[in-house]
Description:
Helix 7 packs parallel to helix 9, helix 14 runs parallel beside helix 16 (about 310-320) and helix 15 (about 285-295) crosses helix 16 (about 310-320). The protein has three domains: about 40-225, P-loop containing nucleotide triphosphate hydrolases (Rossmann fold), CATH 3.40.50; about 230-320, no CATH class; about 325-440, Orthogonal Bundle (Arc Repressor Mutant, subunit A), CATH 1.10.10.10. By secondary structure, the chain is α/β, with parallel strands linked by helices. The chain is about 55% helix and about 10% strand. It has 22 helices and seven strands. Its main location: nucleus. One of its GO terms (cellular component) is cytoplasm. One of its GO terms (molecular function) is ATP binding. It is found in: Nucleus.
Amino acid sequence: xxxxxxxxxxxxxxxxxxxxxxxxxxxxxxxxxxxxxxxxxxxxxxxxxxxxxxxxxxxxxxxxxxxxxxxxxxxxxxxxxxxxxxxxxxxxxxxxxxxxxxxxxxxxxxxxxxxxxxxxxxxxxxxxxxxxxxxxxxxxxxxxxxxxxxxxxxxxxxxxxxxxxxxxxxxxxxxxxxxxxxxxxxxxxxxxxxxxxxxxxxxxxxxxxxxxxxxxxxxxxxxxxxxxxxxxxxxxxxxxxxxxxxxxxxxxxxxxxxxxxxxxxxxxxxxxxxxxxxxxxxxxxxxxxxxxxxxxxxxxxxxxxxxxxxxxxxxxxxxxxxxxxxxxxxxxxxxxxxxxxxxxxxxxxxxxxxxxxxxxxxxxxxxxxxxxxxxxxxxxxxxxxxxxxxxxxxxxxxxxxxxxxxxxxxxxxxxxxxxxxxxxxxxxxxxxxxxxxxxxxxxxxx
Length: 446
């Protein structure tokens, strides 16, 4: 191959890699309505039917989408909205207002921090493009202001007015607004206003209805859509493939085919399946899967154009890095010995709480047997090391210490399990052999 052709091929590859990085990073980082919904078909059907009644037939409704974090609440609503907007009648008339009770996103300007009802109302006005209509008008109440905004959107009867869809992310945080004024007025207009209005709340709180005031609860329709991450590992593998596949029109079809074939091979690889099984057992949160794939994707370059099983294996190690085990790596040998002493106390007393005096006695037994490998520190020095472990939250007291209580006899609990301790010792630099053997021994030193 001539140098010119090689250069052109390299340029094409670089462009393809850049496109892959862009497409997949956007997919992993945002809740785009791409691909399939796994295990949410029933919820999708119910929500779509509910919103159709608002957008097509002019009915007002309200509903809550409830599920743990990462269960797909935002993805579900985005899929339904995308499907609705394919209908011409809906695309031309539907108005959306997105409010978020928690955070603002730099990338998505519609999602604004709603710290109070006044700020939320300003954001509603902005998203409905009614700033000029409101102008310098002064309103006597929140309800009056909201009613004015909806009146400005009216045209003719209820069926011909523009439907308004309010989507409230982190719905439970709006509950803490003073008197729940925003929620009360939104639910109230969904029952009484001429303009068709639907309020969809997204929350991870299972007890959300218990947090609503009586007057707010009485105006809510009590429609609830639950998401539970009920998919099995077989479906999880399909989600893995869907997240990595290049769909639609990719600039270089041959590269897209090569990439997709590689993804199929990855899904059938035993090493990859083990990595995914471990993550699946740890959490079904799909954002965790996206984070794993993001780390693996960062290794893709012109010279390494496809994700390999080793990339996913290394990404898994980075993702599952144990922060507490990392803290252990920076401890002194004395502090390591105290942790091992606590480990033995846990083994002997089957997880019962211990105090500093018990730990000190255990440490002294080891020193007496192995005086040649570790210095016999004075008790105040050992106490100082023990207090440092408390500050690092590797040990925690079971009760709040009182002024009269002796520090040596406060009951404590170790926050590291045996596997974390042994794994940390394997990579601890220059750890004395006798200390490692003491940690590995099944019985305490008697």
